[in-house]
Design a protein that fits this description.
Layout lengths: L4 E9 L3 E5 L7 E3 L2 H12 L5 E6 L1 H13 L12
Parallel strand pairs: 1-4
Antiparallel strand pairs: 1-2, 2-3
């Protein structure tokens, strides 16, 4: 298990996407999705690869929830249609 933790503050801007900032990051990191944001941060932190904890502000939480509700429908159990 990883001992190091990197806590990252995340906000959302309609023009730039998700924006992450932390004292350990040299500059803010931007990505269009939270998964992409996490991957970019992990790539910047190699080879240390700490446990990354994203703290979403209100705008980022609202955008994440909006995407979950309006996005592609999730597959039901065992891949059968809902």
């Amino acid at each position: 298990m990883r001992d190091e933790r990197l806590e990252v503050s995340v906000s959302f801007d309609e023009r730039r996407g998700y924006i992450a900032s932390a004292p350990d990051l040299r500059q803010p990191v931007t990505a269009l999705s939270l998964g992409g944001l996490r991957r970019r941060i992990e790539a910047m932190m190699l080879p240390a690869a700490p446990l990354i904890i994203l703290h979403l502000n209100r705008a980022a939480r609202l955008e994440r929830d909006r995407r979950r509700l309006t996005g592609r429908p999730r597959r039901s159990f065992a891949g059968t249609p809902p």
